[in-house]
Amino acid sequence: MNGNTPYAGVPGKAPAGKRASNDVPDLSPEQKESLRDSITAIATLTREFLPDEYVVGSKVADNGNGAQAQVSVQPPVGRPVSAGFQPGLEDFDGNDLETHEEDEVARGLAASAAMQVKQVMGDDITPTAR
């Protein structure tokens, strides 16, 4: 029953729990640079939406399953929030990453981080304006 799952491995080619090497996208250095530029743009936009008390970071890593990008926000109180993705070769137009979702991701992260603060603070604080 487990032989038909991608986690069972391919006999002689991939061990259980690992992806076959031809299944992992191999990005060119230019594509990796485009991915770094895109994730940096998301982090920069997210910083613009939030006050200085929020810490925003980004990273691009390659852990053997292909390149993975992540942007994280640590609010002044509450849990951190993050957004990440693992692009495939179909996400690139030549060497350029074609997502066009940087603004939407940045807004979502900023809203989620603000919501974390609101949930921790609760309704006990009197708003200064409406």
Can you tell me about this structure?
Helices cover 32% and strands 19% of the residues. β2 and β3 form a beta hairpin. It has a single domain, classed as Double Stranded RNA Binding Domain (2-Layer Sandwich), CATH 3.30.160. The chain has a 3-stranded antiparallel sheet with strand order 1-2-3, with helices on one face. Strands 4-5 form a two-stranded antiparallel ribbon. It is built from 2 helices and 5 strands. The protein is α+β, with helices and mostly antiparallel strands. The chain is elongated and about 65 Å long. The N and C termini lie far apart (59 Å).
**How confident is the prediction overall: mean pLDDT?**
80
Class from secondary-structure proportions: alpha+beta
How many domains, in number, for the residues?
1
CATH fold descriptor: Double Stranded RNA Binding Domain
Q: What is the CATH top level name? A: Alpha Beta
First and last CA, distance: 59 Å
Q: Could you give a short account of the major beta sheet?
A: 3 strands, antiparallel
Short description:
The chain is of the alpha+beta class and 130 residues long. It contains two helices and five strands, in the order H-E-E-E-E-E-H. The chain has one domain: Double Stranded RNA Binding Domain.
Indicate the topology.
Blueprint: H1 29-49, E1 55-62, E2 67-74, E3 81-85, E4 92-93, E5 96-97, H2 102-121
Antiparallel strand pairs: 1-2, 2-3, 4-5
Give me some keywords for this one.
32% helix; alpha+beta; single chain; 3-stranded antiparallel beta sheet; 5 strands; two-stranded antiparallel sheet; Double Stranded RNA Binding Domain; 130 residues
